[in-house]
Fold these 3 entries.
Entry 1:
Amino acid sequence: MKRLFSTWKILVYVLLTLYAIITLIPFLWALSASFKPLSEIVSSEPDFLPKHFTVDNYKQLFIQEPLFFRWLFNSVIIAISVTILNLLFNSMAGYALARLHFTGKNFWFFLILAVLAVPAQVTLIPTFLILKALGWLNSYQGMIVPSMVNATFIFMMRQFFVNFPKELEEAAQLDGLNTLGIFRYIVLPLAKPALAAQAVFVFMGSWNNFLLPVVILFDPEMFTLPLGLNTFKGQYISYWNYIMAASMVFTLPALAIYAFFNRYFIQGVTFTGGKG
């Protein structure tokens, strides 16, 4: 029996290793292509390693493309703002639904569940019309405000707080803390795993967002990186060498965020799937 278990364990590791390799191949090819000239990328003989290694693609981005750093700055400002606001508002809403008693609590909870079933594409036109009426098109607030709360993560935080031990809150209440104090000094510090998982998902979603920027941003100086990368694609020719180089730069902040929150990430995903 023990030998059979070992065999299955080896098989699982082999399958996981193969899956990891298959997943990494496109990324490694893009990394290799970022050091190739365009002629080599579009040639009929695709090679994994560059025959003519060059860093001209990165020079083009950092030196000759005047708006690249502006696009990077826009993406960083928007993604960080959206992440911080989501962490605050989603956590507050999730805690209220899990712990507080107020009129219409069940209605709001089921409304949030209903919002989860609505595709983002359906709300795109209403969002555009509202932002236009407010005069927020082509602006930071137009990108940040519609994304500062997320029904998925309100539900996720609610699930976390439902499983949060009430004894800690009751003890803090006996010590004289009000609801806001309990949330600020007791609940949030112990909710780091859930907050870390949320931060990774929200940052990645905002960082990679293309649909909303392409609808409301029209000034090249306000473009985010995903939208800026699209300018390298033309009607007759696409500069895949620049796109690959920019994509490598584009992935670094996302990798840094995941590395920073990694120790909480798996724990947070596990904790937030509890009872309803």
Entry 2:
Amino acid sequence: MVTSKVVIRDAEGLAAVDPAGATRLPLASGWSRRLGNATLIKLLFLLADLIAVALSHGLAGWIAVRYFGLSPAVLDPANYALFYLPFFAAIQYLCGGYKSPGLKRPERELEMDFKVVSFFFLALVCANFVFFKPIGFSRYVLVSWYVLGLSLVVLLRFSLRGFYAGMWRRGIAREITVLAGPLCLLEALQQKLLVQRHFRHEVVGALASPQPALVFPETQLPVLGRLEDWETVAERYGVRRIILHVSAVEHGRSGAFLAMARRCQEKGIGIEVYSDMLASPEFHYERNEFFGSYSFSSAGGWSRAAQFALKRALDFLLGLVGSLVTLVLLPVIALLQRREDRGPVFYASEFVGTDGRPYYYRKFRTMVSDADAVLRNDPQLKEEFDRKCKLENDPRVLRVGRFLRKYSIDEFPQFFSLLSGKLTFVGPRTVRQQESQRYGELLPRLLSVKPGMTGYWQVMGRQTTSYEERIQMDMFYIEHWSIWLDLVIMGKTVWKVISADGAY
């Protein structure tokens, strides 16, 4: 966090740190800095990969011996690990697997892990025929090894990511960072990090890029000085990274930005350049080595079509299994409800479909049967509900209802709507007709996607997020959708439900 400081404003309204009153930010402790060292993180990911591949190989061999009756003597050549471990590490390195994990979103990590492990086993089969031709290899071992290898590589890598994400949330191993550029754009840049719950950066403030033609708005970011003062600010606050927002109106200052980048490299300060065009998820781009420019192209239509087909297949499979589980739970939950309150087993909840019309999905009832009347007759409760669309300490909830909500069991009847196609498993949150007005001009974008049983906002904060954050998270999901993002959300959903994190 930023320490207290004396702030003055110049004629252009830019806040700056008074040199006489400024205090240096306390730097992170030595062990915290070492924990966040980029080289250490890469070595940990390398070690995790080697453990995952070696352990999965050993488990695959044990399965082949235990369940397929193979002799241990014919499984693999001697010292085989000395061949396949460096081989896997080399493929992972060439595919960018040892770049900083703080730069890769989780769905991209999952996609990369799948591609790397799949390519490794395909290349390994070919290499076996070249280097170990006289030795036979069991297809049972290879198939088991691939499944186990993919599972363990993903598990260990995401465990490391989760470990560092937890450290960053607690303020440990963070990089002291300043945002630089036009003030009117920097808060939106910081909001991108908050919406994604990415806390790698300890953002201590902003370096304002002077633009006389613009009037700078009020900002929540402490303004530490002008962009030209970056070296002084970096020294004073122990800055380890500068994120520079380059806007279109600053194209004439490219020489100054290049000089700044060179100087940052000399001082060991990381520098990142942000551009709205490069940040857009709508395009793929590659660098033109002749001009040093970037060539933009739209995402492949066949790829998105294949991902949509897989999404629909997953919806059908999950809907079928979930509906069967709901039928099994139905008599037990109905009996528990009836012991507390006589009323219907299900509660019908309204939501707006993609065509703008109201539809309904069912949930197991968790409240007293006259819950709507109780809300209408209590102005304080109604005011809180209208503001948050949720009550944190809702007096209308049954005892069994609290248990059902805590572990999301009340949501199971939604699998019927999933099976019928009204809902998708992962998507934006469902909104009622009166709620939809809060989306304003973003409503058409929200309705362009089928609402989901679970989604990005549920796994990134669940009920602990504000309504405005929910809207931003819905928009983020729609803009960045991929089947890999859905799979990450599904995995996080399972963990959130088991841990009852953020539920009430």
Entry 3:
Amino acid sequence: MSYLLGIDIGTSGTKTVLFNTNGMTIASATKEYLLQQPHIGWAEQNPEDWWKAVCHTIQSVLTKSGISSKEIKGIGLSGQMHGLVLLDKNNRILRPSILWCDQRTDQECIEITQKVGQEKLLEITANPALTGFTASKIMWVKKNEPSIYEKIAHILLPKDYIRLMLTGNYATEVSDASGTQLLDVKKRNWSQEILGILEIDSQWLPKVYESQEISGTIIKQAAEDTGLLKGTPVVGGGGDQAAGAIGNGIVESGIVSSTIGTSGVVFAYTDEMIVDPKGRIHTFCHAIPNTWHVMGVTQGAGLSLKWFRDQFCSQEKEVAQLMDVDPYVLMTQQAEQALPGCQGLLYLPYLMGERTPHLDPYARGVFFGLSAKHTKREMIRSIMEGVTYSLQDCLNIIEELKIEVNKVRVSGGGAKSSLWRQIQSDVFQKEVVTINASEGPAFGAALLAGVGTGVYKSVKEGCQATIKEIQHQFPEKEKGNIYEHYYSIYRKLYQDLKETFSLL
């Protein structure tokens, strides 16, 4: 039998998964690394940590599975989007990568909008200038680190740095490149007009492929470092959200995905380029040729619960270690004891500013309505509910754009919690579904590798052959009414606090 390898270079760690061509997970390995925050609102990582994690997890997967690397038909890459990797002419890393959640570039976004024009930005890149995108990061380095800027020879995204290490090729693909603010999203290639206005050398940028196209093969050094077979094909892959959507089967109208990872994303397929004129949600190329997707993003989804776990749940972590369970299991058990709506305790998940729908890098996390009656259980549940309200903000805009939404497929770490799935169903008032494939972006990347190497004729065929719905949860009207009331207050809170956030 042939096998496919999916590699997902995430924010908290790299996950490598080996699948057979029926979509079954054969072996999986994860290696975590640090996120550095030199200042409030900044977020950086060392690309060398990603490469070490990739090597470690590939070796681990090959060892666990007992599969020969000769049996791996193809490799797909996925990863956190927007991150800026700068290399000199000798491929040396010039500075730590500035990540998707970094908020330092507010002024650069204003300058990009002034130089290019709001209408032209939406027309060409399909999105307003945002702090998370790559273009503003490049402009920040130009302004604040000119000695580094003058040494730039190559600009890559996180997964594409790993591609360079694996294949020796400078390459990207359309879904990830869409998030740089430098791609003509309709034409699916770099915009020479935007590059000219921003004075960014087009020679610095990699070649753009469709996500299922072969972008290179494993080189000798990478084979020695990882245990892979020299010459194994590596396809374009996808940004984590597009690849995760492929892994969720979001390849036709009517089905959207809600993913709670570090960030939270509501993602919808479209066979035409639909742009929100207010720029509240993103429009990017999908990982299927001649299709696009829209997605709303909340910055601090799973990040919020992880932050609370690390700061306030040391007892749960200790007990969980003794019980050999995930600390989130114990936290969820506590949250289940709290009433829907948490007796008036609301949480705004803006730990890293916010994208959809506010586009506000100054927004901050808030517990609102806290009283002496509230306990840790209400605080944990209010985080789950607050993140879901933020996802509801995204879903509202998608439906406002007349995009069909019949059911929601949930994924990411948050989908492991039956409680969090039910909260989503009750808030959205939609059927919520889980599928047999739980490896998200890594699985989607592997499916793309299967298409590129001829295992499947198309992405849709690959999804149909491997993905099945397994759990269905339906909305409860009574709880929906409770959440509708608190959601209206949640929406008002941002408007009430907007000016105060900026004062901070």
